[in-house]
Structure formats: structure tokens, C-alpha cells
Automatic annotation (TrEMBL), chains A, B:
<comment type="pathway">
    <text>Cofactor biosynthesis; tetrahydrofolate biosynthesis; 4-aminobenzoate from chorismate: step 2/2.</text>
</comment>
<dbReference type="GO" id="GO:0008696">
    <property type="term" value="F:4-amino-4-deoxychorismate lyase activity"/>
</dbReference>
<dbReference type="InterPro" id="IPR036038">
    <property type="entry name" value="Aminotransferase-like"/>
</dbReference>
<dbReference type="InterPro" id="IPR001544">
    <property type="entry name" value="Aminotrans_IV"/>
</dbReference>
<protein>
    <recommendedName>
        <fullName>Aminodeoxychorismate lyase</fullName>
        <ecNumber>4.1.3.38</ecNumber>
    </recommendedName>
</protein>
<keyword id="KW-0663">Pyridoxal phosphate</keyword>
<dbReference type="InterPro" id="IPR017824">
    <property type="entry name" value="Aminodeoxychorismate_lyase_IV"/>
</dbReference>
<comment type="similarity">
    <text>Belongs to the class-IV pyridoxal-phosphate-dependent aminotransferase family.</text>
</comment>
<dbReference type="InterPro" id="IPR050571">
    <property type="entry name" value="Class-IV_PLP-Dep_Aminotrnsfr"/>
</dbReference>
<keyword id="KW-0289">Folate biosynthesis</keyword>
<comment type="subunit">
    <text>Homodimer.</text>
</comment>
<dbReference type="InterPro" id="IPR043132">
    <property type="entry name" value="BCAT-like_C"/>
</dbReference>
<dbReference type="InterPro" id="IPR043131">
    <property type="entry name" value="BCAT-like_N"/>
</dbReference>
<keyword id="KW-0456">Lyase</keyword>
<dbReference type="Pfam" id="PF01063">
    <property type="entry name" value="Aminotran_4"/>
</dbReference>
Length: 273, 273
């Protein structure tokens, strides 16, 4: 793998056995789309990382050093750049050592395969998102719920094995997001997206879409999603993913979604065809 | 640190940058008290690990190999032995690679300092435990809630800075456990402990105490804890920790707790004075 590992300013070959990232998922991450060696949405990713670090009281490494290493690693390529920042090592059990420098890892991955222009098939996950306002919105490394949800359709006995994403509901029953993407639905001429104040992640592409469409945050139930005029998912790696199929429902590609994809391609050259 | 890292049967010097333990907290752990190089409760720890591995669909390494490495690392000492098992590397994003061998880490740590015989001071944590039946009971590595709760009394502005443990409530308001221990209360001559089917961990020492006392599982509210005739915490590292102080309440050492500590010392020589 193409990765560089640091603790504070010092580069290491691998992660220490007592890193709190491994022990407790005590960290944050960002997954970014790079275009010709640059990360067009770097500032937005770093701002979210900083807000997560404030919430968890993790001291971030120097932004300039992380960016320098990231750009060097990217070496001019189109790729996915992942950044993990953990609380480093040390502390007694759960009690953090407030003076320990963070561990940070930049890694480079191939772009995902293009998804069909006409949209993707999506299923409902059984695994629910627990409600935890102190962790909601930030992109922390406690992701077992997403791992369990995503594993549902590797199960050969599962229905809809062709689904390429799964929608997750909160423990309270409202629809929140996909396992690795945010959700937008068009109803009565207006784009809506679930709030992420009780669970879910405040996606970088979600923020862009909200700005571009004027979408409103609103709690949505299953029926409101299934009876929407159009549905799409989005994230900062794959951009806008129109939903073509969910449960018994099928949607043709909606002209507003096509127009939004074109705007995204202008805003972020990594999403241009 | 005194640690050994393996992926499957192969020993490594450190953890890979793309290990799913670091990325997602996608793993399980056990923390065990060793006595003269042996782990008296090994079988119970392994059984809990196996039940967690079934829940998360993680393939465990060979028990015999793990135990051999653990005993070799312990080298006859009294110590704490920690075992982490992650889902290893690989997969695409959250989707696990079902064929990847697990990463496992055994590490050896000094025994914690003895706590006062008369009991410890405990506080109420503000951080709540979210409700997630699919993860409740098992000792998985998504522990940010415990990290946040434990960090509450490093805050110099926090009340009761002398507290040595903190009690956590679930999002639903019932009292569940301490950040790193289970909870027992004596009411009307009967020992009670909260169930761990919605959040919390099914502790190894908790199971021993339930067997030894005939304690019943019951949801408890704050008042039921504060008005109990006796309260103690327990875990497999520190054994039984009588609670001497909580909020405005103080408890003298209860004779039943003294008797139970004596029984524990007979059952597990690591807890003998």
C-alpha cells in the first residue's frame, strides 16, 4: 500500500501496537478525491477534521506538513487520498494522555470504478445507527455500525444482492444516510436531506449539494424516501450517485440530478467525465 | 512496550497502515489479569472473544497459538495481558474482505496500583452510552464513548476531580456501568446489576460475581444506585472495587463486599492480597 505514517513530526514504518486508533477507534478520518495530484476540496476536509478534533480533543498535526506529504504522495495522480488521525499512544486505559502527539497516516488508493450513469441500486439495511449527539456529524473512527450494515449484502442469503449501497435508519426509525454516503430526496420541488445532529456524518459533498440546491434538512421516514420524485446519494469520493432502484421502486434519471452532476463537475474537476 | 503483533500465523513488527482496527475500530479486545505467568480466567475471556467474533463475523486466530504467545510473553510474571483481534487489512471501504486473516496483538502491562481497601470515589459521567443491541455485551474496539466519559474528569473545571471511576447512563437514562467496570448494587438484601443487552459490556468478573452472589439483572435509575445499601464496581483487571463515595452519598465498607472479595481471591489468585 502507498502510505506514510507519522507520529507528530516523525515518520515511522508502521503503527505502534499500543496506538489508540487500534485500541479504541480513537481517531478521525477524511477520504478525499484528488485530481492531478491536488485535492480540490482540501480546505473543507481539513475544516471538518478540525471540528472533529475539537469535539474529541485530539491535537491535530500541522496542516501544512500533512498537505505537503499528501501532495508528495499523490505525485500528480488522480486518486483517492485517505487521512487518518488518531490520538496516538499512551494514557491509562480509556484516559487519554493529553500530551501525546497524534498519529497520522496519509494513503493513496485507486479511484473507484465509475458507477452507471443511469444510477445505482440501493437496499434498506437492517443495522440501525445508534443515537449519540456527542459523536454525530464528525467523521470519527468508530465505524462498526457501518461495517455491519455493509456486510449485510455480502451475505449470500440476503435479498437484493446486487445493491451497491444500503440506506441506514437511526434507532429512532428515521432515515439518515447510506453506509458511506449522504442522502438527498426531491419532494414537492424541494431537495431534502436528513439532519446529522443525532447520528450520521456531515459529508463534504453533502455541504456542497446543500449550497448548490438550497436543500433543507428534514427528518425523513422510509415512505418519504420511497415516494420521492428523485433520490441520490453523494460523497466526496464518488460525487453524486443517482438512485435508480430501491425496494419496489425504480426512478428514471431526473433532469435536476443530471444538471447537478454537471455543476459538480465544474466545481470539482475530479468529478468531470 | 512489551507486545507481539501477528497477522494470521505470521509475526510482524508493527501494525499495517491499512489495518481495519485503525480505520474503523473493527475489532475486539480482552484485558486479563495474569498471575505468575498464567491467566486464571483465560477460558472465560476466550469464550467472550469468540462470542464477539461470531457477532462481528471476524475469524479468530488459533486459540492454542494465541495462548502460547501470551504465556511466553508473560514469562512467569504478575501482569495485565491485553489481546486485541482486528479484522485485519483489506476490503473495499466498509465492506470486509472475508478471506483476510485477523491481526492480533498480545501485550503485557504492569498491574494497576492497588486501590484503597475502604473503597473508591465515583462520579456521574455526562457522556451517555448510545443504545445499539447489535454491539451490546461484546468487547469491541469502538470505545469513543468511554474515552469521552473518562476524559470528563481530566477537565480541571470538572467537579469531583478526585473520582477514580465514572458511572455511565444509557441514552435512555438507566445506569449501565462505569467507564471500564461493571456495577453491582445491594438493595433489600439482593445484589442487582444492569443488563447489557442494549449497551455496556458483559464483563468476565461480572459473570463471576453473578454466579457467586445470585445477583439479578435489573435496570436501575440514578436514585436506585444512590440509595443502595452497598455499591461496588468490578472488572477482570482490578477485581472488586467497593464504592465509598458517589455524589453526596458515602458508604462504609459493607461486610458482604468484604466477604465477596475474599471469595474472589480464592477463585482467582491474582486478586489475593
Amino acid at each position: 500500500m502507498n502510505a506514510r505514517i507519522f507520529v507528530g513530526d516523525t515518520r515511522f514504518d508502521a503503527i505502534a501496537a499500543n496506538d489508540r486508533g487500534v485500541a479504541y477507534g480513537d481517531g478521525l478520518f477524511e477520504t478525499m478525491r484528488a485530481h492531478r495530484g491536488d485535492v480540490p476540496w482540501w480546505d473543507a476536509h481539513w475544516a471538518r477534521l478540525r471540528s472533529g478534533a475539537e469535539r474529541l480533543q485530539i491535537e491535530l498535526p500541522q496542516a501544512s506538513m500533512v498537505r505537503r506529504e499528501a501532495v508528495d504522495l499523490l505525485a500528480g495522480d488522480d486518486a483517492i487520498l485517505k487521512l487518518i488521525v488518531t490520538r496516538g499512544s499512551g494514557g491509562r486505559g480509556y484516559a487519554p494522555d493529553m500530551d501525546a502527539p497524534a498519529t497520522w497516516i496519509v494513503s493513496k488508493h485507486p479511484l473507484p470504478p465509475d458507477s452507471p450513469d443511469s444510477g445505482i441500486a440501493v437496499r434498506w439495511c437492517e443495522t440501525r445507527l445508534s443515537v449519540q449527539p456527542r459523536l454525530a456529524g464528525i467523521k470519527h473512527c468508530n465505524r462498526l455500525e457501518q461495517v455491519l450494515a455493509r456486510a449485510e449484502w455480502n451475505d449470500p442469503t440476503a435479498i437484493e444482492p446486487y445493491a451497491v449501497e444500503g440506506l441506514m435508519r437511526s434507532a429512532e426509525g428515521d432515515v439518515v444516510c447510506a453506509t458511506a454516503a449522504n442522502l438527498f430526496v426531491l419532494r414537492e420541488g424541494r431537495w431534502l436531506t436528513p439532519p446529522v445532529d443525532r447520528c450520521g456524518v456531515a459529508g463534504i459533498c453533502r455541504a456542497w449539494v446543500m449550497g448548490a440546491t438550497g436543500a433543507a434538512e428534514r427528518r425523513l421516514d422510509v415512505t418519504e424516501v420511497e415516494t420521492a420524485d428523485a433520490v441520490f446519494l453523494c460523497n466526496a469520493v464518488r460525487g453524486i450517485l443517482p438512485v435508480a432502484k430501491l425496494g419496489g421502486r425504480a426512478w428514471p434519471l431526473h433532469p435536476q440530478v443530471v444538471a447537478l452532476r454537471d455543476r459538480l463537475a465544474e466545481a470539482h474537476p475530479g468529478f468531470a467525465a
